[in-house]
Amino acid sequence: MADRSTQFEKALLGLRSLILEGAFEPNSRLPEVALSERLGLSRTPLRRAMDRLIEEGLLERIETGGCRVARFTFQDIIDSIELRGVVEGTAARLAAERGVPEALMAQADGILARIDSALAGEVDFDAYVEGNAAFHDLLAQLAGSPVIQREATRIRNLPLASPSAFLHRQDLLPDFQASLTRAQVQHRAMIEAIAAREGSRAEALAREHARLARQNLEYLTRTEPGLAPQVPGLALVSSEDT
Amino acid sequence: MADRSTQFEKALLGLRSLILEGAFEPNSRLPEVALSERLGLSRTPLRRAMDRLIEEGLLERIETGGCRVARFTFQDIIDSIELRGVVEGTAARLAAERGVPEALMAQADGILARIDSALAGEVDFDAYVEGNAAFHDLLAQLAGSPVIQREATRIRNLPLASPSAFLHRQDLLPDFQASLTRAQVQHRAMIEAIAAREGSRAEALAREHARLARQNLEYLTRTEPGLAPQVPGLALVSSEDT
DNA sequence: TGACAGGTTAATGTATACAACCTAGCGTCC
DNA sequence: GGACGCTAGGTTGTATACATTAACCTGTCA
Fold this sequence. Notes:
The structure is a homodimer. Chain A folds into 2 domains: 1-69, Arc Repressor Mutant, subunit A (Orthogonal Bundle), CATH 1.10.10; 74-236, Up-down Bundle (Four Helix Bundle (Hemerythrin (Met), subunit A)). In chain A, 64% of the residues lie in helices and 2% in strands. The first copy, chain A, has helices at 7-20, 32-39, 43-56, 74-98, 102-119, 125-141, 146-156, 164-167, 176-195, 199-223; strands at residues 59-61, 67-69. A two-stranded antiparallel sheet of chain A has the order 1-2. In chain A, α4 (74-98) runs parallel beside α9, α5 packs antiparallel against α6 (125-141) and α6 (125-141) packs antiparallel against α7 (146-156). The A-B interface holds A 2-3, 44, 47-48, 51-52, 54-55, 57, 61, 65, 72, 75-76, 79-80, 82-83, 86-87, 90, 94, 143, 145-148, 150-151, 155, 160 and B 2-3, 44, 47-48, 51-52, 54-55, 57, 61, 65, 72, 75-76, 79-80, 82-83, 86-87, 90, 94, 143, 145-148, 150-151, 155, 160. Chains A, B: GO terms for molecular function: DNA binding; DNA-binding transcription factor activity. Chains A, B: InterPro entries: GntR_C, TF_FadR/GntR_C, Tscrpt_reg_HTH_GntR, WH-like_DNA-bd_sf, WH_DNA-bd_sf.
């Protein structure tokens, strides 16, 4: 996130992808030298990337040293989405309580209009995804609090909580256009609640919005079990214990 | 957190202390070599510690490279406490909704009893702080979700959100024993709400509990302005802009 | 006198070498 | 035969050397 096109960035993206693709056995230890050779870089940036992935919850530290791939379940994804709704709900509530500068509300309207365009007629899926990301980034800003913004953005970018983990296959939903439209209705309702200074409603709407993502995910995994390995974050999901 | 008595740990604790004590000018760049010499270790563990402190929000990365001390305000501390209440509230709500194993509830009762003892008669402040930490650690576990537990613990340990940032001078409160007793009443009410499976009430109580910490902080800074430099997290607080 | 170009310095990012630790396997002793 | 200890191998944690890049200063030219 910090550096562009550095070895660290390569290590971070490469290792994260490998983990989410299920390239490693859960609970398996990750030897640093072998990994660094596999990724074509030295141990220094690799270790930095591993530290970051530990923060993200994809890896966990071993007491004796080193780290291993974390075991996570479908319920962990559900919980991550719930948490995202809670934190975004807080951003929305505080924004409503404290008020939002004109300029930011105008930006919000612009983003909503962009998403409307993406949904009009034939759905422009890429444009929707882009607009959706912009909306949630802005939502994190609306409370005017660096702390809230940081944490909301952070949790939204957690691999397990990231909408992009399944959004890219949302075309498999029974009526995916209807789902996106429903999400956009919630987007607009949130902004309206914030403008109306109704904190509780804004918070509830944000939570409801996250729950929609959860329902979509549950539907996808119920009807398309074969999809799991393709969906980052679901590759390691299993029903076994510990 | 991971390693004990390693150079990394020394770097993390040392640098964090220096920042919170206000040893650096806000927005000042931190040169790695000078810092590593000052802390008596090499750049490798120092850089790891700096990465961690960036995650915690005490430092921020500079586009061109390196990092500087973050500027934070009193409002940032308020927001961090608010966020802590929200996430702990979620842990409490989910625990109530999903139910908690007998063994964990028994542990909770044990901790509550320990805090009661600490408050009986002459207040044993250290024992209270220890029991309070145990309570909040357990609260993070009650939902039975590794994700919730991770994030609740993480946010609680953020320097700006940490109760220990001002708890150690809580003896300056007008009637600090009453304040601790009120907190303990809230502790017990939370556990009872969870046992009664009342999620909304449990969540509201956790938020209320965080708000008590906020009120204490506000009182302290209002009546003892000279205390600020001694209170970690307040050293860098200022009313100037950007 | 001001602005631009070139060089020099110092900083970070990266690689690698070194050291301490844990683990496992084998041999010996009880 | 089993258990304890020692040694060897490998892995991580740390230090340092190297390279690359950005900033700053200086000198010259317009």
